[in-house]
Specification:
The protein is α+β, with helices and mostly antiparallel strands. The chain contains 9 helices and 10 strands.
Length: about 475
């Protein structure tokens, strides 16, 4: 009896605790997960990194300004002078600086740069025992254009753009995956709450049954063996209740860990498990899935990246050329103000070629390997399409099956409730044993859990259908988890 009083006190305390807990809806849980979930954070960091890499590459395509300064340089060398066919000692002191403005040209992969080099030099030569001091300035414009090769600058930008798009798709897919996980754990907590509620009701029913049989045994209307069975039933239901409390706390901890919530926060989930069963057009669902699924776009990006790899592979040991043009103005004088008193025009033009001769079949084999990689990526795309079609078909079939299960479960609860009430009356009249009543009580608890599980399964399968098709069939609207990318 003492244990019974302690247990009732614990049950009352639990009821008050549940009442004082913070309620959390599925939408609220998802909002917390999007903000705090470690998995979402990692994917977001990857997205931010891809965005910054693209920003950096785009910034590199703008005019670049650089300044290099060498304040002082001294050298004292003895060297052989070919001009005079004699050894000569030379001493030089130099200070110089260069300012350069360079601009890549994306359209042609060319580069144009403007450079100004200002220097001062004090040089002594042993050959003629002379010393030369003065300033010099070289201002020149240089243009370099690769020919007979692919545009490396443009290709690099396209690769980074695809990397960013892929990161955005990964982030959106991770959000959808997190939505599924959050819903599963959310309803898992609700299942344990409901199970605890049912176990509490079963325990109270057993308390009532125990009181009835105890009074009847005291009055000599029932055998004492019935009291022993009632005590066993009561202990079993109390154990079920205690197990339910443990399972609920464990489910809460797992749920809070998933969404990134403090493990010390005390919450109770508030689900909406009302279900309006809907009819789904499988053809419409499949069309939406094949049109909108981000995994297919990722497979397309994989194919494009494989094409880029092929382009780069074909450039191995390639025949290519470079055109270099340079025009400038050079001036020198002892006085800085007279630098360009007698300027000199500098011009240069060069055309160079790189001509491969023999690579023992290396390039041919690497190209073949890249082409095979492209075919493999195309095969992955086809497999992804088939996987999407099969997944959507399975979900649609499951929804139809779950609708039937809900209807059956609802009727089973009604039947189990009526059966329990009828047999409870028989038990009170002494026409049924405690062991038999416990069977009907367990049956009622099982059927009540079954309807809860059926409703939750249907809700989760509807969410799965939304994720598989990116279309919300409850709201009858498309789902857009990723924004359009603007370059």
């Amino acid at each position: 009896m003492k244990k019974l009083i302690i247990f009732l006190a614990a049950s009352s305390f639990l009821s008050l605790a549940l009442f004082s807990q913070q309620g959390l809806t599925l939408e609220g849980a998802m909002a917390i997960a999007e903000e705090n979930s470690p998995a979402i954070k990692r994917t977001k960091f990857s997205l931010m990194r891809s965005q910054e890499n693209l920003n950096a590459q785009r910034a590199s395509l703008k005019s670049n300004f650089s300044l290099s300064v060498n304040p002082f340089e001294y050298s004292h060398n003895r060297e052989f002078n070919d001009l005079i066919s004699s050894w000569n000692t030379r001493e030089t002191k130099t200070s110089y600086g260069s300012f350069t403005v360079s601009q890549p040209i994306v359209a042609t992969d060319a580069k144009i740069s403007l450079t100004n080099r200002l220097s001062w030099q004090d040089s002594y030569s042993e050959y003629n025992d002379s010393r030369t001091k003065g300033f010099s300035n070289n201002l020149y414009l240089n243009f370099n254009q690769p020919i007979f090769t692919y545009n490396r600058t443009k290709l690099q930008i396209q690769e980074l753009e695809y990397n960013l798009e892929n990161a955005q798709l990964n982030y959106a897919i991770q959000k959808l995956s997190m939505e599924r996980q959050v819903a599963q754990y959310f309803y898992m907590v609700y299942q344990q709450q409901k199970s605890l509620e049912i176990a509490d009701e079963a325990y109270r029913n057993m308390q009532n049954s125990y009181t009835i049989i105890n009074n009847k045994v005291d009055a000599g209307l029932s055998a004492r063996e019935e009291l022993f069975q009632a005590e066993l039933n009561l202990a079993t239901s109390r154990s079920d209740f205690e197990n339910g409390m443990v399972n609920l706390e464990n489910a809460r901890d797992d749920f809070k860990l998933l969404i990134g919530m403090s493990l010390f926060d005390d919450v109770i989930v508030l689900p909406d498990i009302s279900v309006d069963t809907i009819d789904v057009d499988i053809s419409f669902a499949i069309d939406n899935g094949l049109t909108n699924r981000m995994e297919l776009r990722q497979r397309e990006i994989d194919i494009e990246n494989s094409q880029f790899d092929l382009i780069q592979t074909m450039a191995m040991n390639e025949f290519r050329g470079d055109i270099n043009l340079s025009v400038g103005l050079f001036g020198d004088n002892e006085n800085f103000t007279n630098l360009y008193e007698s300027p000199t025009d500098n011009q240069s033009v060069s055309l160079s070629f790189t001509i491969p001769l023999w690579d023992w079949g290396e390039k041919k084999s690497r190209i073949k390997a890249s082409e095979i990689s492209i075919e493999s990526q195309k095969l992955n795309y086809e497999e992804e399409e088939n996987s999407i079609i099969i997944s959507i078909r399975k979900v649609c079939r499951n929804l139809t099956n779950l609708k039937n299960q809900i209807q059956i479960a609802e009727q089973n609860v009604i039947n189990a409730q009526l059966t329990y009430e009828l047999n409870l009356e028989k038990y009170e009249n002494g026409d049924l044993t405690g062991m038999d009543l416990n069977i009907y009580q367990n049956q009622l608890s099982e059927k009540r859990l079954s309807i809860t599980n059926a409703l939750i399964s249907y809700k989760l399968e509807l969410l799965n259908l939304k994720i598989q098709t990116l279309y919300d069939f409850e709201k009858k609207e498309a789902v857009t988890p990723v924004k359009t990318i603007e370059y």
